[in-house]
Description:
Elements: E1 2-6, E2 35-46, H1 49-62, E3 66-74, E4 95-102, H2 108-116, E5 120-130, H3 132-158, H4 162-190
Antiparallel strand pairs: 1-2, 2-4, 2-5, 3-4
Amino acid sequence: VESYEDTGASTTADNRSTAGNPGNAAPGDSAAQRDVIRKATVTMLVQDPEAALVTLQGAALAAEGYVQSVATGDAGPRCRDGMPCPATSDQPVTGSITVVLRVPAVDYDAVMDQVQGLGEVAALDIAADDVTGQVTDLDARIDAQRESVARVSQLMKQASNLSEVVRVEQELASRQSELESLVAQRQQLRQ
């Protein structure tokens, strides 16, 4: 489960405050102005990997997120030939599923609870990445690009002949494209 969390004043009060977890710093803490992406890669043993995947997809969609990556495999008992043995009443064949979901930070803990409730957790890797520098850089570049687009738009109004109009339109389209790219990068960090 991967989430973006802006731990500044705009963070919702729903986040749990946990010592040692910079992704849940309360406003006013020294880490309160940090932008953090929390990521958990979970490998679980489940009865039915496909059914677990459907449940995980539903959890991600309900949280307005999505499945970033998934891998399923057979983790059931093996017969002599190395192939999975048929299920018996006392030892059902199980599978494994490794998943990374992208969900908004406000839903991170609830989605993690759902994920861990699906089966036996075989491996859990949790990390927090501070992306404050990236966010600050993107915000500054977006502001500068918006100003640049506005200046070129003004030049467009002052163009006096067709060649100037064509040249300024090309420049405006290029700058608008760059602005859209920067905004998309910023949104990617927020998802």
